Amino acid sequence: MKNFFNNLKNKLKKYKKNIKMKVHKISNTIKKFLKKIFKKIKKKLTPKLKPLINLFSKIATKLHLVDLYHFTKLDKLFNILKEHRKQIFKKIFILIFIPIIIYLYCQLFCNGKLIFEKERMQLNFIFIYFIICFFYCFVGKIKISLYLSMCLTLIIGIVNHFITAFRGTPLVPWDIFSLNVALTVLPTFKFTFTKKFLLGILLFIIGILVLKKVKIDSFKNNKIKIIYRVTVLFITVSFVYSFLSTDMINKFKLDENWDPKEEYHNNGLIASLFKQSRNLIIKEPEGYDINSITELASSIEVPLVKHDENYEYPNIIAIMNESFADLQVIGDFKTNTEYLPFFNSLEKNTIKGNLHVSIFGATTPNSEWEFLTSNSMAFVPKRTVPYQQYVLRNSYSLATILKSQGYTTSAIHCYYPQGYNRNLAYPRLGFNSFLHINTLKNLEFIREYPSDLSTYKNIIDLYENKSEDEKIFNFTLTMQNHGSYTDENFTNTVIAEDGQYPKLNQYLSLIKIADESLKYLINYFENQEEPTIIVLFGDHQPYVEDEFYKSLLEKNYSDPSAKEATEKTYITPFLIWANFDIDTEKYKNLTDISANYLASLVLDVANIQKTPYLEFLDEMRENIPIITGNGYMDKNGEYHDFSEETEFSQLIENYHYLQFNNMFDNSNKLTSLFEVPAQALVED
């Protein structure tokens, strides 16, 4: 045993010596290279600067600036540089070496390209140097600034690695506001360490060791220190201002991709994060004019809903079921048993179709925001979360529309209330009450999350405890089907594609349970006399194996990256069911809509008065049946980017103007546009 440890000790010493020699060799090579550059610069600059130096010398002599005169001699300047050359070489070396190390491990953590387009690489290094300068402004020491920059970027890289593995989308700046959500679901996540991840950690350690070895003297003159820091601060602030207020970033030809992971891979982690930070600023849309908007609003005709004496307002229960999706929409695949038998069997007094959403795999509140407000993620920056950034005061929603017509409004989320600021957002959206994991009764759990069935029993309890003449609007968000799908104690009942995708099997097994729970809920209300409408839809497709999605797309589409193919991964089912007769014939051709239209459709089915804003959207839906944060589809079935100029561009712009007025133009808000007409309320 003693020999073993001695041998190991010797091997480590030898290994350490080899690394030291290699570092020394690299350092000497860089020194030689910099010396050559320095000589070339001196050789080229000296003759070019001589006329300027001579002029400067004459002026200095006449003004009796002897010291300045001496300093203007190039020999004096080069002697100073020669005296401090070791320190200069060290600083240049470390200020080149460490940013390269940071860049490499950040790219490895996000599984991105190490080398790509020159402009994008430049931008990543610009932002890395910006981080270093930022720290230097405060601490005034290069080594400490580099240490802090490495630690910060390491944390960012690791967090991005695990967030991407967990939810399928990379880190964005406002994820910091969702830290409490992340901590609650963290125990359910199975951590895996890839070769690239471990290599990134190794590079970080090498960077730290090299930085520790290099000794750098600080400026001894405090005045020089202050001047240097102020200069760096000025440059840093100027850069930030230019970055935020101009289109400077467009010059670097960053990739725009429907898949955020691909965007990060192609642009680099650091550049992508800084690009996303610009999205925190909402600018007034080009061409926005309050007079024109007022004219547009006044042109919207709102038909008043007439009710006969037998009409009874229905209870409305809207359920956004976590990760509820039918992946067969992408393409057929084999399963040992049907996973949505009840959902597929519903026909009587039922409207079903495909709901196009703006998100994939995560960021649930964006779909519920689109449904509740009828606003679109198309007009807010990609991957932002309106609940956290924009719902900061009372806002119009489906809840406010129904409340103005006598409904009692409530929200249920069978998880923690602080998630995505729901405890703040729901009251601002007009909900009278909010029930959550701490206030709901008799919750049962499947894996780590409350079951759909026990959540639905709380909806029934809410219904049974209302007063006789009270009409309720309830919005419920479930958690049962939440990722990740790696629980080893959960027994799969659905096996897909011969069992080669374990996450997919667990997900489909959960969906089967969700289908059975839906059956329980509908069977209950089918036997109730009070008219009731149940709305159910999914927030996004699940993040299961990438290989499954890839194989399904490749099998069904000649170009899996085309919009028509990619859009299939942004579809969930929707259902509108009633326990009374509704005109399903009217909606027989309605197969695909986007989430922002769904609330208006529900009001239409229930025969409830709408706002001018929703009437505008109804007219728009005839020409543009789908609009999401990813683009839109016109009535001819063609997909478009928002940058494309089409016959529908003006209609898109009008929607943008109205939404901006609704969300951000508080001084000129056209309140009548988003409220139920007063004459309709009087008549009722």
- What would you give as the CATH superfamily of the largest domain? Alkaline Phosphatase, subunit A
Percent range for β-strand residues: 5-15%
Largest sheet: 8 strands, mixed
| Count of helix runs | 25
Strand order of the largest sheet: 4-3-7-1-8-9-2-10
Query: What distance separates the N and C termini?
Result: 91 Å
Mean pLDDT reading: 82
Q: Tell me, what is the CATH class of the largest domain?
A: Alpha Beta
Question: Explain this structure to me?
Answer:
By secondary structure, the protein is an alpha/beta fold. It has 2 domains: 84-280, no CATH class; 313-683, Alkaline Phosphatase, subunit A (3-Layer(aba) Sandwich). It has 25 helices and 13 strands. The strands form 3 sheets. The protein has an 8-stranded mixed beta sheet with strand order 4-3-7-1-8-9-2-10, with helices on both faces. The longest helix is centred in the N-terminal third of the chain and has 61 residues, at 2-62. The chain is globular and about 100 Å long. The N and C termini lie far apart (91 Å).
Task: Tell me the layout of helices and strands.
Layout: H1 2-62, H2 66-72, H3 74-83, H4 85-109, H5 118-139, H6 142-167, H7 179-185, H8 195-213, H9 222-245, H10 260-267, H11 269-277, H12 290-298, E1 315-321, H13 341-345, E2 350-356, H14 365-373, H15 386-389, H16 398-403, E3 407-413, H17 422-428, E4 433-435, E5 445-446, E6 449-450, H18 452-464, E7 471-477, H19 502-526, E8 532-538, H20 546-556, H21 563-566, E9 571-578, E10 592-594, H22 595-606, H23 612-623, E11 626-628, E12 631-633, E13 639-640, H24 649-663, H25 678-683
Parallel strand pairs: 1-7, 1-8, 2-10, 3-4, 3-7
Antiparallel strand pairs: 2-9, 5-6, 8-9, 11-12, 12-13
